[in-house]
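The instructor's notes for this session suggest beginning with a concrete chain rather than abstract definitions. Hand out the sequence below and ask the class to guess, before any prediction is shown, which regions might be ordered.
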Amino acid sequence: MEAIGLSPVVMLLTRYQQYSPHRLRWWELPAYGATFAFYVYLWTLASILAWLRLVIGRVGWAKTGRVAREPAPG
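After discussion, reveal the predicted structure:
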């Protein structure tokens, strides 16, 4: 199962190293891989939560109240 989860990260970093003019050093690869994996999992969670909100009918949007300001001088 780890191979399935890690293969997109490995493919991304491999292609990046092949075609980028700014290649990463060997010790930077795990950090970039972990950051990319975290980013993907975060967007997956956000997408699931958004779909769940739509399915259960919570489509409202809470807006922040505005604060009245004085006009800028000039």
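Then share the key points. The chain has a mean pLDDT of 85. DSSP finds two helices and no strands in the chain.
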